[in-house]
């Protein structure tokens, strides 16, 4: 079992290996995290763990608000996550490698990271200015018939894209050829589908690539059937999600 201790960045979304994660950092706990990461030489990975939030808030309340105008703002690394933060997070996440960390004049940061490896969350430490966690790296097992399943998922995904384009009354344009390596296919499709966070989390936690692809095939067929009856849908980019507000 390979474990690693890294800064922990909880999000209201799921990060998959190989996918791009843009971040707009303004909370002090995450600014402190970025300042610490900048101490790592550029020649080495600047890594941190990303986990989806199960119960809590990505951005902590910073001023009194509804319904209690007298409520005090939350401070510290666990703000928004309760007294036992590990219970607020999903147990499987992804390591992110920050290729770009740019500090603005006002002390906020613009970050561009990429998911690399799935990890299991073992423990959370809130004793410092930001959360850190002990993470167990999870191998990506191929599973049975992954190659054939990937081909089927790609065909179903293209039909899904066409239905999305039709529902939006716009032409289909992915901007890039789709991959054919099963694990990469499984992660790209999981990230690109219009699913809620729990559904994406289940795909991330799949025991192997083949299992993930089987689940995606079912979801793609179901979602494509639903789209036929919808007059319009919001746009969704293929390989990157919205910038986190943090």
UniProtKB/TrEMBL annotation:
Which Pfam families does its entry note? LON_substr_bdg
Question: Can you tell which superkingdom this protein's organism belongs to?
Answer: Bacteria
Q: Which residues form the Lon N-terminal domain?
A: 6-224
By its UniProt entry, which SUPFAM superfamilies does this protein fall under? PUA domain-like (SSF88697)
- Please name the PROSITE patterns in this protein's record: LON_N
Gene3D superfamilies for the chain: 1.20.58.1480, LON domain-like
Q: Which InterPro entries match?
A: Lon_prtase_N, Lon_prtase_N_sf, PUA-like_sf
Tell me what this protein is called.
Answer: LON peptidase substrate-binding domain-containing protein
Which organism does this record belong to?
Answer: Streptomyces bluensis
């Amino acid at each position: 079992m390979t474990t690693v201790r890294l800064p922990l960045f909880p999000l209201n979304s799921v990060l998959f290996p190989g996918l791009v994660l843009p971040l707009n950092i303004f909370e002090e706990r995450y600014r402190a995290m970025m300042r610490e990461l900048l101490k790592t030489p550029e020649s080495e990975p600047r890594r941190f763990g990303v986990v989806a939030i199960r119960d809590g808030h990505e951005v902590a309340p910073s001023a009194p608000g509804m319904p209690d105008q007298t409520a005090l703002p939350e401070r510290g690394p666990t703000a928004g996550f309760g007294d036992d933060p590990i219970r607020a997070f999903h147990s499987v996440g992804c390591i992110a490698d920050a290729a770009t960390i740019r500090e603005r004049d006002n002390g906020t940061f613009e970050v561009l990271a990429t998911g690399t490896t799935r990890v299991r969350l073992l423990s959370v430490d809130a004793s410092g200015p930001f959360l850190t966690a002990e993470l167990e790296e999870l191998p990506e097992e191929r599973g049975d018939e992954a190659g054939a399943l990937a081909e089927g998922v790609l065909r179903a995904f293209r039909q899904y894209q066409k239905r999305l384009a039709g529902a939006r009354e716009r032409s289909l344009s992915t901007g890039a050829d789709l991959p054919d390596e099963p694990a990469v296919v499984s992660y790209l499709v999981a990230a690109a589908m219009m699913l809620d966070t729990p559904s994406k989390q289940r795909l991330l936690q799949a025991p192997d690539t083949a299992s993930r692809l089987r689940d995606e095939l079912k979801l793609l067929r179901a979602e494509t059937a639903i789209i036929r009856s919808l007059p319009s849908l919001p746009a969704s980019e293929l390989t990157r999600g919205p910038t986190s507000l943090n």
